[in-house]
Amino acid sequence: MKEAIAKADTLIEAMGWIRKFRGKTTVIKLGGSVLDDEEALMHILLDVIFMETVGMKPVIIHGGGKAINRALSEANIEAKFIHGRRVTDDATLEIVQRVLAGELNEFLTEEIERLGGRAMNLSVHSTNVLFGEQLKLDSGEDLGHVGTVTEVDRSVIEGLLYTDQVPVIPSMCEDKNGKRYNVNADTAAMAVAQALGAEKLVFLSDVNGVRRDKDDPETIIHSLSETEALALIESGQIGSGMIPKVQACLETLGRGVGKVHIIDGRLRHSLLLEIFTSQGVGTEIYK
Q1: What confidence tens digit (pLDDT) does each residue in 269-283 have?
Q2: For the whole model, what pTM was predicted?
């Protein structure tokens, strides 16, 4: 009986947050080791289904770097990077399209359906919603078929959300001539969140959030204002690896997104714990 009452108390705690976020859009960026962890991925997708069930409007943007690397290795193609970005030549683009916009995108959609939800894959192979142009580096180095998103087809995404389906979007875009580009998943998620005016943008990471000591998970900062985040970067307390992500979060906040969250996607039900509990389990960054 005590266990049953505790479960009821948890639902009551969640009720206030459910009412607050009902009808609001949350963009969720999936990538990294989470996509390779079968159990963690299942719990994330169950969380997404729960969010949709209680009236939230989740949108999934996903990368697939590790799966692409495996496919490149099988094809005896060496993966090349410049400033952390994948160089995408013709052969690499063909694999990115097959793995990212094809196999992985379809798998995530089918898995949501298998677990009891409703989803639709939106890719360059089905209905594309991300449009952009080739990315030019200031250094002049050529990344090949790598792009940046300049326009998002809101109407298609919002139409699916209106019919209680979860849009699943890979990080690829097309230009006005139909040429296709590989896109960084973080920046693709930012573009979609900004276009939709999302209440939340959630980055599922390999760490539990922003820490005062980057090597100590216990020093996580659960809530961080824009001013505090800038001060931590200035003081060096936010480590070099986290700086670009936090700066990207701040940029997104300045363009109409309500809050940005960085959470550890490997933690069971981390999405629900972050959104529907008072303290959360990651870092929430707000304007």
Answers
A1: 889 888 888 777 888
A2: 0.91
Q: How many CA atoms lie within 13 A of 17 on its CB side?
A: 18
Nearest C-alpha neighbor of 34 from the set 277, 276, 192, 266? 266
For tokens 């997404």, name the residue. 48
Domain map of the chain by residue range?
A: 2-286
Buried/exposed code over 191-223 (b: 16+ C-beta within 10 A; e: otherwise): bbbbbbebbbbbbbbebbbbbeeeeeeeebbee
Active site residues: 29, 32, 65, 186, 245
Give me the amino acid identity at 64. Answer: G
Distance of alpha carbon 172 from alpha carbon 94, whole angstroms: 12
CA-based Rg of the chain, rounded to a whole angstrom? 19
Is the Cα dihedral 123, 128, 130, 135 positive or negative? positive
Q: What is the pLDDT of residues 206-220, one digit of tens each?
A: 778 888 777 788 888
Whole-Å CA distances, 234 to 192, 209, 216, 283: 29, 18, 20, 18
Side chain identity at residue 151, one-letter code: E
C-alpha span between 67 and 72 (Å, rounded): 9
Please calculate the CA angle 44-49-55 and round it to the nearest 5 degrees: 130
pLDDT digits (tens, 9 = 90+) for 128-140: 999 999 988 877 7
- Determine whether domain 2-286 maps to CATH 3.40.1160.10: yes
